[in-house]
């Protein structure tokens, strides 16, 4: 293993260890009570012991302390050797790592000064440490492909959220009035906000069963809500699968290249039929420069073998056709002059 691989393994180990400690320290068997002992000069009660709250076992603190020392060193080294500070601050992983590390030190500083319900509030904000799982995308290509897939499908996912919210509001109102039309003493839908919970659970096809319609009209609304949820959620799935297949094929092709030639393309760079468009623009730019007609002819032969039809790019078709004819005439004229010069040399 190389030094980079060793550092990567250590980083993944501390990330997983930190997440496990964060989860296990909430288990009742790994918590100790905070006991408030109060002494009174009273003949009836000499000692009063009250159980206020619980805190995690001290062993979890030491484990997290060692892990956060590693995270602090790693973050400092990345910041020190980053070529541009603006580039460092634009990366979401660095921001998450900084906030998660600061949350530990803040929790440590406030540990002895805050008790009771305020302690639960501080521990709630430490949930940001779970976001360190996003650091694993730097070490596993599969997670990186999945993250890039959702990033490329952001518009489709936002459209899905919009239609789901629209359906939730509509079916919450329908189920509220449907249950009130008929005589229903067991009506559970007392308001539209209560129906919002039922609508989202039904559209997501979960169905906890805590709230169910009792009238025939309400059952009809519930059936339509479930069918609409299945159709709405299934709409963006082909787009997400297509983007995942595109990024996966790119990653597979990149893994077969030599390491010096590898480059990770951004999501906006991996688009269907981008090769033909780039070829046309390359040819148009070269034909306006001082390029030898013979070399342009060889370039023309390579570009004309492209499988992308020019009709897909009507705004470039005219320029490409004009440059194509011009290059052909220049190459033929150059070859004729060369043949005439060679014939005259032979006659001499």
TrEMBL record:
GO terms for molecular function: delayed rectifier potassium channel activity. It comes from Wuchereria bancrofti. It is a multi-pass membrane protein. Keywords: Ion channel, Ion transport, Membrane, Potassium, Potassium channel, Potassium transport, Transmembrane, Transmembrane helix, Transport, Voltage-gated channel. It is found in: Membrane. Residues 6-251 form the Ion transport domain. Residues 336-348 have a biased composition (Low complexity). Residues 327-348 are annotated as: Disordered. This is Ion transport domain-containing protein. Its main location: membrane. One of its GO terms (cellular component) is postsynaptic membrane. Gene3D superfamilies: 1.10.287.70, Voltage-gated potassium channels. Chain C. One of its GO terms (biological process) is action potential. The chain crosses the membrane at residues 6-24, 157-177, 189-208, 220-248.
